[in-house]
């Protein structure tokens, strides 16, 4: 846990990743209401943008990004995950974003190379 | 998605032992169900979705098979009686009637119906809702652009298509159209080509109403304006035949070959006579023959179109179109294959005097010739690449003409309701509608009727519907917009003024020509005595020509120079502006003022 290499971060920093995710969601579905015919496009966009921004961070990580968009009509949703990795270097970040008509949940898993 | 990430790793770090440890399950998202949110939505029940179990195609045409229908009538004699009553037996029917009349149901029904009827009658008596409210209103001329739309297309039912060479409308109201089909290309028709021509009912394009079966294909076909059952047709082999539609498809009588024309009969017209049975025909063999259909054994009169008036058939001009106006029964005109137009008088004493005069005409055959129905002194001719309007009095040249078109003009006709409107058809399949009061350079409306040449044209008497016959026998009916078939205010006066003006202009030109010719003649006579004078005249002329040329060239040069000067100035200005711009970008407002 103390293996810090000078000049390069080799641990998963949750805050940065969180910011990246938030930005990409805002950009894609920022002020929109749920539209069934556009949801496909939105999820793809969110995931792509996230991934692009994450690789731009320039860290030696493998990324896995998942996104879920759910319409707000009274249903419940529960997700969980379990991982077997190197706890010192790898990490995950899940962001839950909502507006009046939908929820958007994006998870990013980062695995050190 | 193209993402490339390059990273470096120390060799010593390769194959590093993996320190894996388990991370227990973590709950990411927990959204509690909220039934109150369902109030934001309404249930859609049922949901309609359209599904079709067919191939997906981008474009597909389907046309049902032609279903041939025939109209028949039924004569209904008696009926509606129940099974056990024999309608022939009067007793039974009376008994049945009495029985029914006594029924309560019948009495109630009649009473109810009676009250309904009473209501309607009272309504009608109170106000006449069907009266003509705006009788005195004038129809205001709509400012819509002229247009025409196709209302029907009649195709030649035969396999081998022939050209629709002549069209004739039914005399009363134009509900039928007689079309003559023949192949005018020399020796191009195959032996299986049908000889038939058809009479179409304009409402039914699927099947012709009557087939006209001549011995040889008909080049022209005309309804008798006095008797709408009689038609006369001119054949390709020169014979004349007449049909009675009540008597069937075969001709009632045909003229004998020895007495007929020697070439296809291009035009026949019915004459205005007491009996209504006289007609005359023209053909390219140079003869014009008069016939009485009661006796087609031989023509009643003959005329050879010899311009030298010697009745020499070898010199004769071939007649392609005829013109006859019922209001001027003694005069008629023939348009010839050679391009000239011959004006004739039927009542002349000697055959030589029958030919009154010759108009120069066109460079090619005069395909159509018609007097203006409102101003019979002026006539329209169509041939070569132009349409020309002539005045009877001016024999040297036409008074008005259209520009030269890109394809030959095949037929032309005046509109029967508007004196300034005429129609022409061309080899490229267009129909041009010319409104000479509105525009003289171009047709007011040009419609592409079909892709092949249009050979014949006929306007119905109401001026609204136009029929065009094409090269492959397709006859198209077009309906014109109301602007083209209602007379405009003051149109007659304007048109007569226009014609008079042009006639006067031509007269003046003619007079000047005559004067000049006279002068030349006298000068050449003088020149025989004094040789130098004509030469001096020539020299003077040459000098004048040279002077004119020099002035012309001078004017051109001056224009060119001023144009160049202006261009140079513009270029200089532009350079200056771009220089200033690149030096001081902040001074833009100043330059804008400059």
Write a structural description:
Chain A: This is Dynein light chain Tctex-type 1. Chain A: Pfam families: Tctex-1. Chain A: It comes from Clavelina lepadiformis. Chain A: Belongs to the dynein light chain Tctex-type family. The complex is a heterodimer of chains A (113) and B (594). Residues 1-7 of chain A have low confidence and may be disordered. Chain A has a three-stranded antiparallel beta sheet, with helices on one face. Chain A is globular. In chain A, strand 3 and strand 4 (102-112) form a beta hairpin. Chain A has helices spanning 14-29, 39-56; strands at 61-71, 77-85, 91-98, 102-112. Chain A has 113 residues and is an alpha+beta fold. With 594 residues, chain B is α+β, with helices and mostly antiparallel strands. Chain B is built from six helices and 29 strands. The model of chain B is unreliable at 585-594 (pLDDT under 50). At the A-B interface, helix 2, strand 2, strand 3 and strand 4 of A face strand 1 of B. Strand 2 (77-85) of chain A pairs antiparallel with strand 1 (21-31) of chain B.
């Amino acid at each position: 846990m103390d293996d810090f290499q000078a000049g390069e971060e080799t641990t998963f920093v949750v805050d940065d990743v969180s910011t990246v995710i938030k930005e990409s969601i805002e950009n894609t579905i920022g002020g929109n209401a749920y539209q069934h015919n556009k949801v496909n496009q939105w999820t793809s966009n969110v995931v792509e943008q996230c991934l692009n921004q994450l690789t731009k961070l320039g860290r030696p990580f493998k990324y896995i990004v998942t996104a879920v968009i759910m319409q707000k009509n009274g249903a419940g949703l529960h997700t969980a995950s379990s991982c077997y990795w190197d706890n010192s270097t790898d990490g995950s970040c899940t962001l839950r974003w909502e507006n009046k008509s939908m929820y958007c949940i994006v998870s990013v898993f980062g695995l050190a190379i | 998605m193209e993402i490339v990430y390059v990273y470096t790793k120390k060799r010593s770090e390769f194959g590093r032992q993996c320190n894996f440890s388990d991370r227990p399950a973590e709950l990411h998202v927990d959204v509690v169900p909220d039934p109150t949110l369902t109030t934001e939505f309404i249930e859609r029940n049922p949901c309609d979705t359209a599904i079709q179990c067919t191939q997906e195609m981008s474009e597909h045409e389907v046309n049902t098979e032609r279903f041939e229908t025939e109209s028949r009538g039924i004569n209904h004699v008696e009926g509606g009686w129940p099974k056990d009553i024999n309608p022939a037996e009067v007793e039974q029917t009376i008994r049945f009637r009495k029985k029914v009349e006594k029924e309560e149901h019948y009495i109630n029904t009649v009473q109810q119906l009676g009250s309904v009827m009473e209501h309607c009658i009272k309504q009608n008596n109170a106000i006449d809702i069907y009266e003509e409210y705006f009788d005195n209103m004038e129809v205001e001329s709509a400012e819509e652009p002229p247009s025409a739309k196709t209302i029907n297309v009649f195709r030649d039912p035969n396999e081998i298509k022939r050209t629709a060479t002549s069209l004739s409308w039914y005399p009363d109201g134009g509900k039928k159209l007689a079309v003559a089909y023949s192949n005018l290309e020399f020796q191009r028709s195959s032996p299986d080509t049908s000889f038939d021509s058809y009479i179409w009912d304009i409402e039914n394009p699927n099947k012709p109403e009557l087939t006209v079966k001549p011995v040889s294909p008909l080049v022209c076909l005309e309804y008798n304006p006095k008797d709408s059952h009689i038609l006369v047709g001119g054949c390709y082999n020169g014979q004349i035949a007449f049909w009675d539609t009540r008597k069937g498809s075969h001709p009632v009588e045909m003229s004998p070959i020895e007495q007929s024309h020697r070439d296809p009969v291009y035009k026949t017209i019915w004459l205005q006579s007491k009996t209504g049975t006289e007609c005359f025909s023209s053909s390219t063999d140079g003869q014009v023959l008069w016939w009485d259909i009661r006796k087609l054994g031989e023509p009643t009169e003959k005329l050879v179109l010899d311009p030298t008036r010697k009745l020499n058939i070898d010199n004769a001009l071939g007649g392609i179109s005829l013109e006859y106006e019922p209001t001027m029964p003694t005069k008629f005109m023939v348009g010839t294959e050679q391009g000239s137009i011959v004006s004739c008088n039927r009542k002349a004493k000697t055959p030589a005097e029958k030919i009154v005069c010759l108009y120069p005409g066109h460079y090619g055959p005069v395909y159509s010739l018609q007097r203006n129905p409102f101003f019979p002194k002026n006539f329209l001719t169509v041939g070569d690449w132009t349409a020309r309007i002539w005045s009877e009095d001016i024999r040297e040249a036409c008074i008005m003409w259209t520009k030269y078109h890109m394809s030959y003009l095949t037929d032309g006709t005046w509109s029967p309701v508007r004196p300034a409107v005429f129609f022409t058809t061309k080899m490229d399949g267009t129909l041009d509608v010319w409104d000479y009061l509105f525009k003289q350079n171009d047709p007011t409306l040009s419609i592409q009727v079909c892709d092949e040449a249009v050979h014949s044209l006929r306007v119905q008497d109401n001026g609204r519907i136009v029929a065009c016959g094409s090269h492959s026998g397709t006859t198209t009916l077009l309906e014109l917009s109301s602007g083209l078939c209602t007379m405009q205010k003051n149109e007659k006066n304007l048109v007569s003024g226009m014609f008079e003006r042009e006639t006067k202009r031509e007269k003046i030109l003619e007079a000047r020509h005559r004067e000049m010719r006279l002068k030349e003649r006298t000068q050449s006579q003088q020149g025989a005595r004094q040789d130098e004078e004509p030469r001096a005249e020539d020299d003077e002329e040459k000098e004048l020509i040279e002077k004119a040329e020099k002035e012309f060239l001078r004017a051109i040069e001056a224009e060119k120079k001023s144009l160049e000067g202006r261009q140079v100035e513009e270029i200089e200005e532009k350079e200056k502006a771009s220089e200033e711009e690149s030096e001081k970008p902040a001074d833009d407002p100043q330059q804008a003022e400059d």
